[in-house]
Amino acid sequence: MSDLLPRCDKGEIWLLDWNPRRGSEQGGFRPGIILQSDLGNHAEGARTTVVVPLTTQGRAYVFYVPVPAGRDTGLPVDSWANATQVFTVDKSRLAKRLGKAGPVAMQALARAVRAVLDLD
């Protein structure tokens, strides 16, 4: 494997290789939103980033944040960010940049993650 890792920015949506999975974790190739700050993403030698997986199985659940399909997001169908599954992943899992989540979705995701972690 090459040491050249993809450069990612907060709010970008990437197709990730989630394998191998365990238990209720995401598996296969699925999109996720980069949650980590660009300070962390761009730090010299930083091999990891923090992501939240996306699912097409939306739920009326406070920790699921809608992310619409479209050219900007690169998503073919409406999806939901599952704030209960925050992962630190090696950047080698980042397979392809799809697009970027809009500010409304990112603000809602920030609120959902704070709620999941009881940070307010």
Structural commentary:
The chain has 120 residues and is of the alpha+beta class. The chain has a single domain, classed as SH3 type barrels, CATH 2.30.30.110. Helix content is 15%, strand content 32%. The chain contains two helices and seven strands; from the N terminus they run E-E-H-E-E-E-E-E-H. It has helices spanning 38-41, 103-116; strands at residues 12-17, 29-34, 48-55, 64-67, 79-82, 87-90, 94-100. Strands 1, 2, 3, 4, 5, 6 and 7 form a seven-stranded antiparallel sheet that branches. The protein is globular, with a radius of gyration of 14 Å. The chain starts with 11 loop residues before the first strand and ends with a helix. The model has no long low-confidence stretch (mean pLDDT 92).
Question: Features of this protein?
Answer:
seven-stranded antiparallel beta sheet; alpha+beta
Task: Spell out the helices and strands N to C.
Answer: EEHEEEEEH
Q: What is the fold named in CATH at topology level? A: SH3 type barrels
Q: What structural class do you assign from the helix and strand content? A: alpha+beta
Q: Class in CATH?
A: Mainly Beta
Instruction: Calculate Rg over CA atoms.
Output: 14 Å
What is the average of the pLDDT values?
92
Low-confidence segments, given as residue ranges, are none
Please report the total strand number as a whole number: 7
Strand content: 25-35%
Largest sheet: 7 strands, antiparallel
Helix coverage percent: 10-25%
Distance between the termini: 41 Å
The total number of structural domains is: 1
Shape: globular
